[in-house]
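Narrative of activities, Objective 1.

The group set out to show that a structural description can be obtained from nothing but a protein's sequence at a throughput compatible with the screening campaign. Below is one input-output pair from the validation batch, recorded exactly as produced.
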Amino acid sequence: MKTLAFLLLTSFSLHAAAQDYVLAEDRLSSGSLTLNGKQFSVETISRNGNVCEYGGTIKNRVSKDRDGCVVHFSFADNSVKLTIPDSAREACQASCGHNATFDATYYKMPAACSAKGTAAMEKRFQTTYQGKRYRDAAAIKQRYLNECDKFLDLTEWMRTLNDLSVSYKNAGDKAACRKALAPMDKWLEGYQPSYLYEDAYKREAAAAQFNLKQCSDK
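Output recorded for this entry:
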């Protein structure tokens, strides 16, 4: 889902249905975990663009390699948590760039939030919006945001809020328009984006500022 995330097939066993597990709830980094029987691989990109790439074999929910990297796995219904003991952190860090890491919780992505699900939602939204059914268009974006918020990277999230605000504005609801933009406040004041998404950030930030003026009561 995230722009920089690697979308990888995962499974709890060789016979289980493939699933995607990705980093979530962090607007500025991305990553994916692949489980295939006892084998795993994980890839992440930090907010500064540094990469981790690591993989191995899981035995009794633990992976160890000859260089001393140790990874513990905790499985839940919709997530997998990777933990690295302090004693193994230096050895595991050899697979990562500066300040990058792969010990985190990875979540199963709902179908609606996948690339295919997002494309289908966007098609419905554009058709509805161009048909001037603005309240219905806002509802489409709001449902998507309700389900997929934590899987969106910063600029995807900003674009979704911009689309939502414009839909409300054209529906004649300036208060709802302003409310849709409010979560972006902290990202619009003094934030300096990484080179990885600087252009997209500036585009969405400018759109948000314009939309806010359009939705002002003044």
